[in-house]
């Protein structure tokens, strides 16, 4: 499982800027205004071969008054701390130590979480007298960083991961094909995930109530069908932002992300009565980022009329266009309608995700594609695509070698992806096409 790091601190110390730096995104809104971040934000980070999940939180005021927005933000932050394996406590190196910092440090010591103390906005500062006051907090070494400029961020993440004992290299054992298909059932709360698994198993193995958030953790259930072994993972439902205050759902988001990461195939369950929501799109985005094979299932199909069915199909086309490679099924878990065909799509998606693609066949397909349609010129040169080989599985990765490949457009990459997908029947899995240019042997020589 990926380690989870939570960014905690008082308002306006630069947590969101640091979050964007760690996730290489602009997902968190950043402005010079205290209290802008109110809900938790989740993102994926990587340091070399080591991957992690990072949580951005709002300003933490442990003593916030009853009924204030700051009290709700404090609830969100406490839940992020509970979810995290380690806390990155961010203070303002230029603003100096404050009473709020002391309150937060006291709270972190009480909770007993692994903590890394980080002084942000420390660009141009030495590690001496200017940072000495932060040792008063009693949280060990102070790591100076500048989130805005990227200084010291790598050292900060290394300190957090080293404290947790995260190994330098990926554990390849997790990705060994042992013949067991790990299937995660993901979706928003109350779409029928547990009901679906109970229908598959033919018994009440999982608690299923008409109440959002019943499942508190990711539950694994061994299962065998038609001679194939499965491990079913029923994930806790993801709530809309700002609606994750109850302790019953404390671990739902992180556990869902970790379940998706550990699965081979994800069944994304949608609710026909509500269509495709923003949260459905977010979960789909997580699945795509993780590179997992995916099957779409629209539950409660029996509860909607012809007009609603048409609207649901349109919303899938418009809101989830990046999952065009996934097969779609319309089912009723409660009435056990349309469930059998799901297994064929799951098996097909798994087979595609683990497909072996020989280098000679890939190279021949590449050259045929170039002969049919060459890439556009980039400046003075036209990219030359010479050969291709497989760079990984689950998801399949195809590495194309040649010259001046940095000029290959995204449109041309999609064209190649389509050719490879058709040739190898890659249905239900993302496919990544990477370009690797040969080094110019004359680049470092004087003209």
TrEMBL record:
Superkingdom, natural source: Bacteria
Keywords tagged on the record: GTP-binding, Nucleotide-binding, Repeat, Ribosome biogenesis
UniProt key word GTP-binding: yes
PROSITE patterns hit by this protein: G_ENGA
Positions bound to GTP 2: 187-194, 234-238, 299-302
Keyword field contains GTP-binding: yes
GO process terms (BP): ribosome biogenesis
Binding site for GTP 1: 9-16, 56-60, 120-123
Domain EngA-type G intervals: 3-168, 181-354
GO molecular function: GTP binding; ribosome binding
Alphabetized HAMAP family for the sequence: GTPase_Der
Subunit structure: Associates with the 50S ribosomal subunit.
PANTHER family: GTPASE DER
Family that this chain belongs to: Belongs to the TRAFAC class TrmE-Era-EngA-EngB-Septin-like GTPase superfamily. EngA (Der) GTPase family.
Reported function: GTPase that plays an essential role in the late steps of ribosome biogenesis.
Record-given protein name: GTPase Der
Source lineage: Bacteria, Pseudomonadati, Pseudomonadota, Betaproteobacteria, Burkholderiales
